[in-house]
Design goal:
- The complex is a heterodimer.
- Chain A folds into five domains: about 120 residues, Glutaredoxin (3-Layer(aba) Sandwich), CATH 3.40.30; about 200 residues, NADH-ubiquinone oxidoreductase 51kDa subunit (Rossmann fold, 3-Layer(aba) Sandwich), CATH 3.40.50; about 80 residues, Ubiquitin-like (UB roll) (Roll); about 90 residues, NADH-ubiquinone oxidoreductase 51kDa subunit, iron-sulphur binding domain (de novo design (two linked rop proteins)); about 55 residues, Alpha-Beta Plaits, CATH 3.30.70.20.
- By secondary structure, chain A is of the alpha/beta class.
- Chain A is built from 25 helices and 18 strands.
- By secondary structure, chain B is an alpha+beta fold.
- Chain B folds into two domains: about 60 residues; about 80 residues, 3-Layer(aba) Sandwich (Glutaredoxin), CATH 3.40.30.
- A four-stranded mixed sheet of chain B has the order 2-1-3-4, covered by helices on one side.
- In chain B, strand 3 and strand 4 form a beta hairpin.
- The longest helix of chain B is centred in the first third of the chain and has 12 residues.
- Chain B is elongated.
- The chains are: A alpha/beta, B alpha+beta.
- At the A-B interface, helix 2, strand 10, strand 14 and helix 18 of A face helix 2, helix 4, helix 5 and helix 6 of B.
Chain lengths: ~625, ~160
């Protein structure tokens, strides 16, 4: 069937709405994004399918990621007239028990994350809450009230974890493609451009350029215009784009379709990382389905508008996240950026006007069209509207993806949603913006998160990675790590970036080895400023940020490394050793048994000692000791 | 456990040119713009990029060998040397780094007596560090062939490696 109008979509959607919200059989949704699978969801899925192969009252399905990665594999169970319960850490061994438990209304609280009170997304206000009439079950926490979910507003991730990503009909059921059909049939391109401009949406990939203005500029240039999606999510520590592609690929296709209508484009490209095989697979299947409904291809919905999307896979080059490098790579060349005297909206891919946005940006567009620019612009701060997805990772209790309103404070994200630093360790910094960003110390935790504010403290929003660091993270080592990363990824074309990074790395490596000299910090700062001013592309100009911010906020750590030859965090091996604290050691022998070098000796219930000659500082004893008796000196 | 890959050096006679045509022509339409994806498909087949296959590709899509070499060496996915039957990709993204990926790397290097980027003499393993696999919540993460291993502890590595022959 070819879709002709919104009515067609709604009709199919209604049929599938029952499957989504009020299934007759017990429905088991298993979160099957990459991280869920890595945590054991595939095994759980296979085990469930073997036990419940078909019509015995239980239906096993897969969804994307609902965001709370720490609790993976997540499994949700529901049935018409029954509660919707999300279970946590459900492995193959436990899955049958939880399904049978649900069927017998026997709920094991230890395995339950919470009961959902409203599964609708924010576009579905016109349908009644399918769980509205149901009284919550006493004793089971309400999912929407637990701190991790309580402060979230899901726009870009509105369907992730709720629908089967391989099923376009379920996307229809949640108001999918309605925005696009409205745009195609009822709006003029200029109206779409005005609406996106008025919403204040800014690029979610890092630069934060206003999306509407980018589209408008592209539309003004003549030629075969291209709509390109940057899914080359290279920032280490950020994976929201992967999650959206794996959990709700159609929202990205719909966003691109709307952009194509607004700009006047016939061909789209998605440049996706080779490291995300599952995202590629789901995209291929989504494009195939959209074509079968006539939502991609020639004469879409009976109009004279034609548009198709091709997937291109990257091959492991961080610099290809930069717009000009990405387009060079799309053309089959090495991904070297060029100077942007002429912007890609004028001359980009194949020397034609090309509009490039990232995954999360496109995912926002359908909602903006349906809910209106004013609604969107109400959220956020003066210059940063709407929501942003952050990946909260590193030394944090609740790792996962969180979508929050712009302007929320870092403290709220880290302490409230993230649950703070685990194992009673002390918070040290939060790193935002990937290798181009900076490390923000505790004193700025009340900073409201938006594009401007993060730039003011020397970091950037970037693509939304937030890596929390605690007392065991050495800031000099972190700076060295990023410089090492960037040195490997620099395309080597311009001198300041290529040589600057090499010199910086040499100095930082020396400092981490205990061979730092007075004057090193000054030299690092000089190199940093030089690179910021003279590098060719964004990679080079932002490359010194991790070094400069760590010098600015954690200078004492640099001084300790250089003057005292000590690494207080216990990371730089030549600059510390482990000792056993006499007061805390209980003589439990755990470290003694775990040491691979047999460097620890001591009898049961007596103080242990470490033979410094034998110790290789692998840290196994430090991690294993429950009494904080292994200390860094 | 996912399947081990071929690990031998491929010579001119070993190449099935009909099959290569299938990749270059049928799948990618002889299109220069698809060079990167063609190379990925070739590498998937042979587990590395054999020189005779690249020479054939060069004439087939009229792209000079120098440019193919440039692309193959620019992008980190590609290998011009035969790789081991099992590929260990250790994630060195920031989240994994602060959770101890370096220690995991050192442990693997010590266990297998190879450095990052090298292959064991028996061609059993190739060790490659990669930039962020995107499973940051499960760090440190190691991917062996297609299998993800999350929250790796240094003392568990030898046990995991045993599964791959």
């Amino acid at each position: 069937m070819k879709i002709q109008s919104v009515k067609d979509v709604e009709q199919i959607g209604q049929q599938y709405s029952r499957k989504l919200y009020t299934p007759d059989a017990v429905k088991v949704n298993i979160g099957m994004a990459s991280c869920g699978i890595a945590a054991g969801a595939q095994a759980a899925f296979d085990a469930a399918l073997e036990k419940y192969p078909g019509n015995n009252g239980v239906k096993i399905s897969r969804t994307g990621c609902i965001g709370f990665c720490e609790m993976e594999p997540l499994v949700e169970i529901l049935q018409s007239g029954g509660p919707r319960i999300v279970y946590k850490k459900i492995t193959a061994k436990k899955i049958e028990d939880v399904i049978e438990g649900y069927r017998n209304s026997d709920f094991d609280l230890k395995l339950i994350l919470g009961q959902m009170r409203d599964p609708r997304n924010l576009l579905e206000n016109d349908i009644d809450n399918p769980l509205g009439a149901l009284a919550p079950i006493d004793g089971i926490p309400i999912l929407e009230d637990i701190p991790f979910y309580g402060n979230q507003v899901k726009i870009a991730m509105r369907n992730c974890g709720y629908i089967d990503p391989d099923c376009i009909e379920e996307y229809f059921a949640r108001k999918g493609y309605v925005a696009f059909l409205n745009a195609l049939q009822d709006m003029k391109p200029a109206e779409i451009l005005d609406l996106v401009k008025a919403s204040g949406l800014r690029g979610r990939g890092g630069g934060g350029f206003p999306t509407g203005i980018k589209w408008e500029t592209c539309a003004r240039h003549d030629g075969d215009r291209y709509v390109i999606c940057n899914a080359d999510e290279g920032d280490p520590g950020a994976y929201m784009d992967r999650s959206i592609l794996e959990g709700d690929p159609h929202t990205v296709l719909e966003g691109m379709l709307i952009a194509a209508v607004a700009i006047g484009s016939r061909q789209g490209f998605i440049y996706v990382r080779n490291e995300y095989p599952l995202a590629v697979k789901r995209l291929i299947s989504a494009i195939k389905q959209a074509r079968s409904y006539g939502l991609l291809g020639e004469n879409i919905a009976g109009s004279d508008f034609s548009f198709d999307i091709k997937i291109s896979t990257g091959a492991g080059a961080f610099v290809c996240g930069e717009s000009t490098a990405l387009m060079a790579s799309l053309e089959g060349n090495v991904g070297r950026p060029r100077a942007k005297y002429v912007h890609t909206v004028a001359k980009g891919f194949r020397n034609n006007p090309s509009n490039l946005n990232n995954v999360e940006t496109y995912a926002n567009v359908p909602v903006i069209l349906l809910k209106g620019a004013n609604w969107y612009a109400q959220m956020g701060t003066q210059h940063s509207k709407g929501t942003k997805v952050f990946s909260l990772v590193g030394k944090i209790k609740n790792t996962g993806l969180v979508e929050v309103s712009m302007g929320i404070s870092l403290r709220e994200i880290v302490n409230k949603i993230g649950g703070g630093v685990p194992k009673k360790k002390k918070f040290k910094a939060v790193q935002t913006g990937g290798p181009s960003g900076g490390c923000i110390p505790e004193r700025f935790l009340d900073l409201p998160v938006d594009f401007q504010k993060l730039t003011e403290v020397g970091s950037i929003m970037g693509s939304g990675g937030m890596i929390v660091m605690d007392q065991d993270t050495c800031m000099v080592d972190v700076a060295r790590y990023f410089v090492d990363f960037l040195k490997e990824e620099s395309c080597g074309q311009c001198n300041p970036c290529r040589e600057g990074l090499k010199q910086m790395l040499e100095i930082l490596t020396r400092i981490c080895k205990g061979e730092g000299k007075t004057g090193d910090i000054k030299l690092l700062e000089e190199l940093g400023v030089m690179m910021q001013r003279f590098s060719l592309c964004g990679l080079g100009t932002s490359a010194p940020n991790p070094v400069l911010t760590t010098i600015l906020y954690f200078r004492d750590e640099y001084d300790k490394h250089i003057r005292e030859k000590k690494c207080p965090a216990g990371v730089c091996k030549p600059l510390f050793h482990y000792e056993i604290d006499e007061e805390n050691c209980t003589g439990c022998q755990v470290c003694f048994k775990k040491c691979p070098q047999e460097a620890i000796s001591g009898e049961k219930k007596k103080l242990h000692t470490i033979d410094q000659e034998k110790c290789i500082k692998c840290g196994i004893c430090y991690d294993a000791c429950k009494f904080n008796a292994i200390v860094v000196r | 456990m996912s399947v081990a890959q071929p690990s031998a050096q491929v010579n001119t006679d070993d190449i099935d040119y009909m099959e290569l045509d299938g990749i270059i022509e049928a799948d990618f339409g002889n299109d220069k713009e698809n060079l990167i994806m063609i190379l990925q498909a070739i590498q998937k087949k042979y587990n590395y990029l054999p020189k005779p296959a690249l020479a054939y590709l060069s004439t087939k899509i009229s792209v000079p060998m120098s440019k193919i070499y440039g692309v193959a060496t620019f992008y980190s996915t590609f290998s011009l040397e035969p790789r081991g039957r099992n590929i260990i990709s250790i994630c060195r993204g920031t989240a994994c780094h602060v959770r101890g990926a370096e220690k995991v790397l050192e442990q693997i290097q010590e266990s297998l007596c190879i450095c990052d980027g090298e292959t064991t003499e028996d061609m059993r393993f190739t060790l490659e560090s990669v930039r962020c696999i995107g499973c940051c919540s499960l760090g440190p993460v190691v991917k062996i062939n297609e299998d993800m291993h999350g929250r790796i502890a240094t003392d568990k590595i030898d046990k995991i490696l045993k599964h791959y022959q």
